[in-house]
From TrEMBL:
Name used for this protein in its record: Major facilitator superfamily (MFS) profile domain-containing protein
Membrane topology: Multi-pass membrane protein
Ubl conjugation as UniProt keyword: no
The organism's place on the tree of life at top rank: Eukaryota
TM segment ranges: 41-70, 90-109, 121-139, 145-167, 179-198, 218-239, 306-324, 344-365, 370-390, 402-423, 443-459, 471-487
Keywords carried by this UniProt record: Membrane, Transmembrane, Transmembrane helix, Transport
Similarity comment: Belongs to the major facilitator superfamily. Sugar transporter (TC 2.A.1.1) family.
Domain named Major facilitator superfamily (MFS) profile: residues: 43-493
Alphabetized Gene3D superfamilies for the sequence: MFS general substrate transporter like domains
InterPro entries linked: MFS_dom, MFS_sugar_transport-like, MFS_Sugar_Transporters, MFS_trans_sf, Sugar/inositol_transpt, Sugar_transporter_CS
An example Gene Ontology molecular-function term: carbohydrate:proton symporter activity
GO CC, one annotated term: membrane
C-alpha cells in the first residue's frame, strides 16, 4: 500500500494545537457538538444503519420457532402437545449458525480494516450479504437454512464491529456515547421491523409467511451501498497509516460544516493535531502496536476484559430469556396473536427506552453507575419471574411473567443494552480500537452460541421444560455480572482517549477513575523536539 512521506512536526506546536482541541471538546456541549459536527453525525448514523440487518435477522429466527408456517416447513409434529415443533437441537443449530459466521466475520474484520480501511470493508460486506441472502430465501430444509445463516453471519459480524468503531473515531467527546449506542438502537429498529412484519404475516398459512420476511433483507444493501460510496474514511485510520493530508481532507468532509469557515478550518487543524498527538502517545509512551496479541498484554488486557464482559454482559443479565421472548410466552400459555402483539410492543418499548436513555440517563449518570444499578434491578426482576412460576398453568400468572419481561426490557435498554455497544468502542486504545471491539463482539458471539444451545433446552417442553424457573438461572449470572462491574468497571464518562490511556497506564483502581485528576499535556512532554510521524 502506498503511504505518504511522513512529515515532520514540531512537538511544541503539535501539543499546543492538540491541547486546544482537547479543551474545546471538554467545554463543548452536546448541542454545540451536533451543530459543529453535523456531517460527522450524519455519516455515523448512516454507517450504523447496517446493523439494522443483524438485529432484524436475530429476532426473525428466534421468533420463527413459534411461527406456525415455519414450524410446519422446518419442524416435526409433536404428538404429546399436538403441535408442530422445531426440535431443540435444530433450534440451537439454526440460532447459532449466524452467530458462528458473525464470529468469523468479525475476526476477519480486524485484519481487513487495518489493510483496506473501514469504508471499503463495509461496502464489500454489503455486496457479500446481498449474495448470501439468496441461500436463505430459497432454502427448503433446515440444513440449507443453517448454511445460509452461517454465510450471512460473516457480513453481520463486520457490521456489528465496524459501526461502533467508526462512530467513536469520527465524533467528538460529547457525542461519543450517543452515536456508539446508536448502533444498539439500529439493532432494536431491525428487531422492531421484524416483529411488525411477523405479526402481520403470522396468520398466512403459505410459505410466503416466512419467505417475505427473508426477502425484506435485500432492501438495506440496495439503499446503503449508493450512499456509502460517498462516505469519508476514518481520519484515525489515515493517521495511523501516515496519510496526513488524506486525514485532513477526511476531517474537512466530517467537520467542515459551520457558519464561520475560518473557525471550521482552525477546528480541523487542532482536531488533526489531537489525533496525531494521541497516536504518538500510544506509540511512544505506551508502546501500543496494532496486533491482536497486544490486546492481551499489560494494561491492554484489562481494557480488553472490560470490553468483552460488557458485551457478554448483555447475555449474562438475561437477554436470551427475557428479551424478545415469544417462545417463552408460548410455553406459559399465551395465544399466538397475543404473543406477537406482545413482541411488537416489547420491541417498541425497547426503542422508546433507548431514546429515554439518551435524554435522561446517559447525559447525567456515569457509565459505571448506570451499569451497577441496572444489573441489580434486572436481578430482582428475574427472581420475580422465577418465583411466579410456582403457580404455573394459570393465564394470569403467564401474563404477569410476560409483563415482567417487558419491564426487564425497559431497564435493559436504559442501561446495559446501550453501554454494551458504547463501552467497547471507547475503552480500548485508539490503535487497538477495531481489534478491541472485534474481540468484545466475538466474546458476545461465543456466549450467544452457548446460550443458544442451552436456552431452548430450558424452555422447550420436549427438553428440560423449566418455563419461568429459567429466571433463576439468569438471575444468578446477572448477580455475578454486578459483582464484576463493582470491582472491574471504571468510569469513562467525559474522559478523552488520552485521559483514559493514562489512567489505565497508571493502574488507577476502577472505583477511583471518576475522581482521579490527570494532565495529559504535562509540560515535560512539550519539549521542542522534532517528531517523525511513522507508519504502522
Amino acid at each position: 500500500m502506498d503511504v505518504e512521506a511522513a512529515p515532520k512536526v514540531d512537538r511544541t506546536v503539535l501539543n499546543s494545537q492538540a491541547k486546544q482541541a482537547d479543551e474545546a471538546e471538554h467545554q463543548e456541549t452536546a448541542w454545540q457538538a451536533i451543530r459543529n459536527h453535523r456531517r460527522a453525525v450524519f455519516w455515523a448514523l448512516v454507517v450504523s444503519l447496517c446493523v439494522i440487518m443483524e438485529g432484524y435477522d436475530t429476532i426473525l429466527l428466534g421468533n420463527f420457532m413459534a411461527y406456525p408456517a415455519f414450524a410446519r416447513q422446518f419442524g416435526s409434529y409433536d404428538a404429546a402437545d399436538k403441535t408442530w415443533q422445531v426440535s431443540a437441537p435444530w433450534q440451537a443449530g439454526i440460532g447459532d449458525s449466524s452467530g458462528i459466521g458473525a464470529f468469523l466475520g468479525a475476526l476477519l474484520n480486524g485484519f481487513l480494516v487495518d489493510r483496506f480501511g473501514q469504508k471499503r470493508v463495509l461496502l464489500g460486506a454489503l455486496v457479500a450479504l446481498t449474495a448470501f441472502l439468496f441461500i436463505v430465501f430459497f432454502s427448503t430444509n433446515v440444513t440449507t437454512l443453517l448454511v445460509g445463516e452461517l454465510f450471512c453471519g460473516f457480513p453481520w459480524g463486520i457490521f456489528a464491529t465496524l459501526s461502533p468503531a467508526y462512530a467513536s473515531e469520527v465524533l467528538p467527546l460529547k457525542l461519543r456515547v450517543y452515536m456508539t449506542s446508536w448502533t444498539n438502537m439500529c439493532f432494536i429498529t431491525g428487531q422492531l421491523i421484524a416483529a411488525g412484519v411477523m405479526a402481520g404475516l403470522v396468520d398466512n398459512p403459505t410459505k410466503w409467511s416466512y419467505k417475505i420476511p427473508f426477502a425484506i433483507q435485500w432492501f438495506w444493501p440496495c439503499v446503503l451501498v449508493p450512499i456509502l460510496c460517498f462516505a469519508p474514511e476514518s481520519p484515525w485510520y489515515l493517521v495511523r497509516k501516515g496519510r496526513i493530508e488524506e486525514a485532513r481532507h477526511s476531517l474537512t468532509r466530517l467537520h467542515g460544516a459551520g457558519d464561520d469557515a475560518e473557525a471550521a478550518a482552525a477546528r480541523i487543524d487542532t482536531t488533526l493535531a489531537l489525533i496525531i498527538h494521541t497516536d504518538n502517545q500510544e506509540k511512544e509512551q505506551l508502546k501500543v502496536q496494532t496486533s491482536y496479541w497486544q490486546c492481551f498484554q499489560g494494561t491492554e488486557r484489562w481494557r480488553t476484559e472490560i470490553a468483552c464482559v460488557c458485551f457478554m454482559g448483555q447475555y449474562f443479565v438475561g437477554m436470551a430469556f427475557a428479551y424478545n421472548s415469544t417462545y417463552f410466552f408460548q410455553q406459559v400459555g399465551l395465544g399466538t396473536n397475543q404473543i406477537y402483539d406482545l413482541n411488537v410492543g416489547g420491541n417498541a418499548l425497547a426503542l422508546f427506552a433507548s431514546y429515554l436513555s439518551w435524554l435522561f440517563v446517559l447525559p447525567y449518570f456515569g457509565r459505571r453507575t448506570i451499569y451497577l444499578w441496572s444489573t441489580a434491578l434486572m436481578f430482582v426482576i428475574l427472581m420475580l419471574i422465577g418465583i411466579l412460576n410456582v403457580k404455573t398453568g394459570e393465564h394470569q400468572i403467564g401474563m404477569a411473567q410476560a409483563v415482567l419481561t417487558l419491564v426487564w426490557t425497559v431497564v435493559f435498554q436504559l442501561s446495559v443494552g446501550q453501554l454494551g455497544w458504547a463501552l467497547p468502542a471507547e475503552i480500548g486504545s485508539t490503535r487497538l480500537r477495531q481489534k478491541t471491539v472485534v474481540l468484545a463482539r466475538n466474546a458476545y458471539y461465543l456466549v450467544s452460541v452457548v446460550v443458544g444451545v442451552l436456552e431452548p433446552y430450558f424452555i422447550n417442553p420436549t427438553a428440560w421444560n423449566l418455563r419461568g424457573y429459567t429466571g433463576f438461572v439468569w438471575a444468578g449470572t446477572c448477580f455475578f455480572t454486578f459483582i464484576w462491574a463493582y470491582f472491574r468497571l471504571p468510569e469513562t464518562k467525559d474522559r478523552s482517549y488520552e485521559e483514559i490511556n493514562l489512567l489505565f497506564a497508571k493502574g488507577i483502581a476502577a472505583r477511583d477513575f471518576a475522581n482521579y485528576q490527570v494532565d495529559v499535556f504535562d509540560p515535560e512532554d512539550e519539549k521542542p523536539t522534532v517528531l517523525e510521524l511513522s507508519t504502522v
